[in-house]
Amino acid sequence: MNNILATNKKAHFDYDIKDTVEAGIVLKGYEVKAIKKSHVSLNSAYATFHGSELFLINSTISEYQTKNQPKNYDKNASHKLLLKKSELENLIRQIKEKKMILIPTKIYLKGDWIKIEIGIGKPRKKYDKREVLKERESKKSIKIQME
């Protein structure tokens, strides 16, 4: 069973996610402790390539202990994501050919390892978001009527 530590609640609303990929993440010890205490936010985060390496940008990992942090601690630092070479090449191809983007959807524990789920999708237009809201409302009303 995976223990979910943080989710990006707006990811499935703002983006039409077609597929997901599980990646490892390079962290320092105090960042691991902060993430395990759920001091992490993925709300405005995204993943991008720098050369042939994948990085998580704009995620926020708050301090684990404010008095015991390094002086140069940056809570919005970018973090390298770990994938197999074939998976990286597949992601690069999808991004270039289909004009997809990479959005982190959740961070979770898998055994003792911290993993991140990256969604591959396209941004939704405003009218698509309205359709999603209409579907949610209709499902909610049907569920209420059934009870």
Question: Could you characterize what this model shows?
Answer:
The protein contains 4 helices and 9 strands. The chain has helices at residues 11-14, 29-36, 85-98, 126-146; strands at residues 3-7, 15-25, 40-41, 46-50, 53-57, 60-61, 79-82, 101-110, 113-123. Strand 4 and strand 5 form a beta hairpin. The longest helix has 21 residues, at 126-146.
Which keywords apply here?
single chain; 147 residues; alpha+beta; seven-stranded antiparallel β-sheet; two-stranded antiparallel ribbon; 4 helices; 9 strands; globular
What's the arrangement of secondary structure elements?
Layout: E1 3-7, H1 11-14, E2 15-25, H2 29-36, E3 40-41, E4 46-50, E5 53-57, E6 60-61, E7 79-82, H3 85-98, E8 101-110, E9 113-123, H4 126-146
